[in-house]
Every structure is written in structure tokens, then in C-alpha cells.
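ok so for the tutorial part 2 we go from a plain amino acid sequence to predicted C-alpha cells. step 1 is just haveing the sequence, like this:
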Amino acid sequence: MGTVGEFTNFLEDLNLISIIIRIFLSMVCGGVIGIERGRAHQAAGMRTYMLVCMGATMVMMTGQYMYIHFQTGDPARLGAQVVSGIGFLGAGSIIIAGKTRIRGLTTAAGLWTAACIGLSLGIGFYEAGVVATIAVFLIMTRLRQLEYHWINDDEWFRFYVEMEEDVKISRVAQELLTMGIQMGEMRMEQHAESFQKVVISLSDKNHRSRDEITKYLERIDGVLFVKYTI
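step 2 — the prediction. this is what the C-alpha cells look like for a chain of 230 residues:
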């Protein structure tokens, strides 16, 4: 028991081994959260989350180093600046999609949480950092289905679609409606080519995946190209 306590105290102190472990854990924990965001085609992916988490860890270790070696400063003060300062990254990941929908809030919240996890790892609070990482990953993956299937019944996807020039949007909307897919906002883009460029928002009542909706679009006569956009 004494050996375990000594090892725990060793990891909580600031030394080369604890520094390596803290930085490594921050990269792993940030990367785990970022992988999910990358799969969701968000601008902030694995590397962004890793850097945010590791940067917060470095700030916290720097505060601890200053307190130990210079007998001055407050380790929590630098951490407080990270919590408030990370907002610029979060704001940059929020996108207004159309007039009524906002995307990127989950990514922004995830970045802020990743910074908080980095702070906990940076001060040696390993247990909280690891448990919080698992909790955030579950929230972003498992609870996402619960949110869209049981709470929010109107998940919307945005697609960039190229169609033949003589294809009518009304016909496309009617075909999608027969499949249980509702068309929301639509924006026609200027073009000089012999085809139409359209950005449309779609919602599926049957909660099919983005890839399945993409395949439905590609099967419609006159549709030349389909690409999902954030």
C-alpha cells in the first residue's frame, strides 16, 4: 500500500516521468475526442483537439513549476486564463447554416472540455482527466443517437448537388418526399456551365445515415454529383 502511495505522489510531483506521462495522456485524451469530431466532418478534428488538450496541460504544468521553483504565483491562475481564452477557437468552429440553424456548438463545447481535461492532467489529476475523456467520448458518440432519435426529431444534413440544367427542383423534392426525406432550405448558385449547382438541407424522418441519404440523391435522374457539406 505504501508503494502505491509513493508512486502516486511521484506522479503528482513535477518530474521528467510525470511530465512525459501528462503530455502523453493529454495527446491521447484529446485525440480520442477529436477522432469523433473528425468523423463528423467538423473543421476541428483529432490534431486540433490534441493540441488544445496538450497546450492546456503545458500551461498547468508551467504554473506548477513556477509555484515550486520560484515560490510565487498561483497554479490555478494560468488555468483560468485557458478556460476563458479557449473561446476564440470555439467561436471559430460555430457556423450559421441558413437562417435558423447553427452548427458547431458541440465542437466548440468539446474544445472547451478538452482544454479543461488538459488542465486536470497538467496538474496531475489523472483520474478526473481520463474519466472525463471517456464521458465526453460517450456523449459525442452514443448519446448523439439518443438526442436525434428521441429528443430532436429533425436532424438536418446539408448537401452540395450538381444537376442537369433541365432538372426541376420540384421534381427532386417530390422524389425525396416519397422516400421520407424532407427538403428544407435551398440555395441556387450562379453557374456558367450547362448544369445547376444547388445547396440543399435535407431531413430524414426514418433517421437514415448521411451516407444513405447521399445514395438516394445520387439515384435521382439528372443528378450528376452529390457532396455532403458541414
